[in-house]
């Protein structure tokens, strides 16, 4: 199964690359700059008579990025990391001279620390990677030959300078020739987001007003907005970095709040579709459509719009809705409509007011649970996200187990591959550095399957080596022709890196193997032995790495998924309707994203069938809907919850008790027990709505209080419905978990 998957992935990316190939787009120009900088860096390295000159152009390629701000950030961190790594190398070499045993221990410790920091640092990963890269490039010379301190210093200088030359040359060219700014693209994406969000609003509220429901166009718009939010999220940090470094100011709206809003309004739409009939909103058709038209006008205009006039128009329409609503209630006409109909209408008005508050007025009154939780970093170091709490000498440490496992595995692999090469008595002066660098670049954590990564590594190295050997066969002596060859191969590799997202790693490996084979020295190569040994060292390194990845902590993704499901309910059990101070749904949402990633891994590695994958993803989707509802409840003002609890205090206690013990049941009896409790609570919610209506308990309250209270009741019922849906999924999921547990 996985062979077909990988073959299809590679073929689809290659077809897309061929079909969409163009020399005129911005990515093509970025590839030209990368290839040109590789040639210049190589010439500078040769002019300075530095050893292993092929590392200079290769460093240009590990710097490739379409945006100037990202390039500057990468450059700063990599220069700082190179200098720090060189300093650590000199320090380590001073203590471990002529003692390879101590050097091995220190290599393991430094590699583990740097790779762990690389995996856990959101923005400084380049810094930690360059520390270990410079450290190994410099200190690996102690495995290659015995050098005097002066010779060691000279070799270390050569290797560090090659890294710096490649980084600086690429940065300079990227800055001088048509730099591309993330802030510009961010602005364009935000403008597009406003347009799509406006269309999304119009579709949902028009369907609601006209009582003509069709979920398909809503789903398509939802997915479009989701993809835009994902793109904006990826651009936002780079745009902010540009603002700090080069004063290129981005502008836009709170895209994270947009994500909350589209989920909330989608849930509202689904709830309306589930009702048998709704008609109360037809009394306010003209006003709601007018508000939607104003939303659309905002999306079409620029930042210089008269926001005061727009806000005034919207408030006038909302005031008319409030007046008409009060008249309907005063005359008793609302009794001709169902209770659910009027409750849903009030929720729709609150949603409209939320949109106005946060996307037009841009007020920050929203109680962001994510901001609050960041006051205590320990909240995000949760077992559900892979953290484990340890105590050392009275100090508490939180270690992310998967990342620490990855760091230790990579460090052990580096040590094993170096010693294996040495014990086989292979030419160390031609391979040690190449082996370690191949392992380091191949082991970087990403979202590729390790099998796919191995295939891409093999293909990339084979293509690069073949291209290098073909050019060596012609014994090129012309400087211009040689540089042209480097440029063309570099351009081809860069195009794969930027335009083939799923096989981009192959592009980097093509240029690495080509550099090692073709440009280690200037002029024609008289013997292919050194070239062949360098190539063999790369394959030796990645082969050992592949074996070690199987032998050391071969991931049981199903156990990870099962543990994640159990940990989810342990965290969710902290939720209470009337007091959720210790409940932060953003942590759970992040954890569900990790679970989906591991479920995809299960499918790729043939651990589960597509039907079983569909069931697990169905659970994740249902849980995400539950989290959206719980988050909205978590943010409802306490005064509305208090009003409801005073009417039926036992109801809150029952729901809190259910949330406190709800988990994946172990048998049919527990499933039936949960199901019965949920249905009883839903029945009480309906009784509560009728009690409030029949006794006129909201009659003396203002319109805003009525709307927020009704919305809170709708959310509580929606929470119970979500739990009921998940409870039914658990009944299907239990045999799957039991089957894999027994196997």
Brief account:
With 743 residues, the chain is mainly α. The protein has helices at 2-19, 26-47, 55-61, 68-96, 100-120, 125-139, 141-144, 149-176, 182-210, 215-246, 255-274, 285-300, 307-330, 339-360, 369-373, 401-423, 432-442, 450-473, 479-499, 504-518, 529-551, 557-572, 585-604, 610-634, 638-647, 649-661, 668-694, 703-742, and strands spanning 387-392, 395-400.
Description:
It is a single chain. The protein is mostly helical and 743 residues long. Helix content is 75%, strand content 2%. It has three domains: 2-180 and 397-551, no CATH class; 182-247 and 254-361, Up-down Bundle (Four Helix Bundle (Hemerythrin (Met), subunit A)), CATH 1.20.120; 571-742, Methane Monooxygenase Hydroxylase, Chain G, domain 1 (Up-down Bundle). The chain contains 28 helices and two strands. A two-stranded antiparallel ribbon has the order 1-2. The chain is elongated. Residues 247-252 and 363-377 have low confidence and may be disordered.
**Helix-strand topology string:** HHHHHHHHHHHHHHHEEHHHHHHHHHHHHH
Mean pLDDT: 77
Q: How many structural units, i.e. domains?
A: 3
End-to-end distance, in Å?
A: 20 Å
**Biggest beta-sheet profile:** 2 strands, antiparallel
Tell how many strands the DSSP assignment holds: 2
Q: What is the radius of gyration?
A: 31 Å
Shape: elongated
Question: How helix-rich are the residues, as a percent range?
Answer: over 70%
Strands in their spatial order, largest beta sheet? 1-2
> Which strand-content bin applies to the residues?
under 5%
Q: Report the structural category.
A: mainly alpha
Q: Helical segment tally?
A: 28
Low-confidence stretches: 247-252, 363-377
